[in-house]
Design brief:
Elements lengths: L15 H5 L2 H10 L2 E4 L4 E4 L2 H8 L5 E2 L15 H5 L8 H12 L2 H5 L2 H20 L4 E2 H6 L2 H10 L3 H15 L10 H23 L5 H7 L1 E2 L2 E2 L2 H15 L1 H16 L1 H9 L4 H11 L5 E6 L3 E3 L2 E3 L4 E5 H4 L34 H18 L2 E4 L4 E2 L8 E3 L1 E5 L3
Parallel strand pairs: 2-10
Antiparallel strand pairs: 1-2, 3-7, 4-14, 5-6, 7-10, 8-9, 11-14, 12-13
Helix pairs in contact: 5-12, 7-9, 7-18, 9-10, 9-13, 10-11, 11-13, 14-15, 14-16, 14-18, 16-18
Keywords: Heme, Iron, Metal-binding, Monooxygenase, Oxidoreductase
Family: Belongs to the cytochrome P450 family.
Protein name: Cytochrome P450
Length: about 400
């Protein structure tokens, strides 16, 4: 008996087949090449849960200082991204993170609940109205693409009248042209406009403080040290880059997988107490931030494979989250599973500062959705984004089912 030769294992985060469905690639990487080297694109990739977790937790070997995305555009021309503490190592990173955390507290995020409900209600009511008129909605355009940026604006203290314009700028900042890695000019222009807006807002708050994050960042102080102007601006900008698209994708991914696994979404429709698990299992099963980059500071050996110093290494979060050694039947979407080991918000010193906010937003939004409809159907025309690390939908047309 002859067995057919399997196709050679080639993994690239720029491959459209990977964007469509990365999980068969991850599965082969874990089995055949857990410490994978792509010589052509000059990067390594770790796909086993333990290796990803350990690399996150060893910043002295796996540094963030050369950027956290393989995409050169993500840190090349964007001064403000380069300066953000996401792409720094300790002690500089730790100092800024501590100062920022003085303002960005769990208490402040918890206090946002009402604001999140209000913003969510506004956009979701419009969706329900459309459904009553027998119309379909685009879940991304009409809801999930609007909520997270407005919530970030609310947190920062951006007046309601300016939020639509800031959303437009934020969308433009994240916009990529199909198949191109370089940032389009419009994206850089929008980034500068966004920064200019924040600059004015900070100047206003310096004159008169209010009850918002921006004022808290101005006043944050540890041992007489404060954030300077650029540090405040780079953090405000980082929140848009790190917290907007990721949360949008989380919401649409939850609806998508709930539709693919109707028994699972039925659990939530029957019992809203399952909503937090809907959020957590979606994050594990198909997280919006699929991978981050590190650069080796020294030679290191993993599973007998030597990685030299100064190498780019991708930590495949999306793969670690499906590793069968940690998650039984990891390729199955199951709201009853224990997700506590999930890597979706990272690990170690750069653990997501917005995890609490993302979870709160996910819960408020999915609770409002699941308690106001009896079901939903995803219509043809769903479109995935093509991105080297963000996973989710650009468009998700659907029909909502309402009780009479
Ligand atoms: C860091 C994921 C939402 C702010 C991270 C990291 C991951 C992540 C994986 C670690 C990056 C690294 O180690 O290089 C996510 C996901 C989200 C989400 C999946 C939503 C589903 C948010 C939100 C905010 C936010 C809503 C704030 C508005 C940040 C910040 C960091 C970060 C500031 C940098 C922390 C540091 O470098 O110390 N996020 N995030 N994220 N995230 Fe999130």
């Amino acid at each position: 008996m002859t067995t057919a030769n399997p196709a050679p294992l080639i993994f690239s985060p720029y491959d459209y087949d990977v964007h469509e469905d990365p999980y068969p690639f991850y599965s082969r990487l874990r089995a055949e090449a857990p410490v994978y080297h792509n010589a052509e694109l000059d990067f390594w990739a770790l796909s086993k849960y333990d290796d990803v977790r350990e690399a996150f937790r060893a910043p002295d070997v796996f540094s963030s200082a050369m950027g956290v995305s393989l995409d050169p555009a993500a840190y090349g021309p964007h001064a403000y991204k380069t300066m953000s503490f996401l792409a720094m190592d300790d002690p500089r990173h730790a100092r800024l993170r501590r100062l920022v955390s003085k303002g960005f507290t769990s208490r402040r995020v918890d206090a946002l609940r009402e604001g999140i409900e209000k913003i969510s209600r506004q956009y979701w009511d419009e969706c329900l109205e459309r459904a009553r008129d027998g119309e379909a909605i685009d879940f991304v355009d009409d809801y999930a693409g609007k909520l997270p940026m407005d919530v970030i604006s609310d947190l920062m203290g951006v007046p309601e009248a300016d939020r639509t314009e800031l959303r437009r700028l934020a969308d433009q900042v994240m916009h990529r042209e199909e198949g191109k890695q370089d940032l389009p000019k419009e994206s850089m222009v929008a980034a500068l406009d966004l920064i200019a807006y924040y600059q004015d807002m900070v100047a206003e708050r310096r004159k008169e403080r209010t009850e918002d994050l921006t004022s808290a960042l101005i006043d944050a102080e540890i041992d007489g040290e404060k954030l300077d102007e650029d540090e405040i601006l780079s953090f405000l900008f980082l929140m848009v880059v790190a917290g907007n698209e990721t949360t949008t994708k989380l919401l649409a991914n939850a609806l998508y997988w709930g539709h693919e696994y109707p028994q699972q979404s039925q659990l939530v429709l029957d019992d809203p107490a399952m909503v937090p698990q809907w959020v957590e299992e979606t994050l594990r099963f198909d997280t919006s931030s699929q991978m981050v980059l590190r650069t080796t500071t020294t030679e290191t050996t993993i599973r007998g494979v030597k990685i030299p110093a100064d190498q780019k290494v991708l930590l495949l979060i999306g793969s670690g989250n499906r590793d069968e050694e940690i998650f039984d039947d990891g390729d199955v979407y199951d709201l009853h599973r224990d997700t506590s080991a999930s890597l979706s918000f990272g690990q170690g010193p750069h653990f997501c500062l917005g995890a609490h906010l993302a979870r709160l937003e996910g819960r408020v939004a999915l609770d409002m959705i699941s308690t106001s409809i009896t079901g939903y159907e995803i219509l043809p025309g769903a479109e995935r984004v093509h991105s080297s690390n963000v996973r989710g939908f650009a468009h998700l047309p659907m029909r909502l089912e309402l009780s009479n």
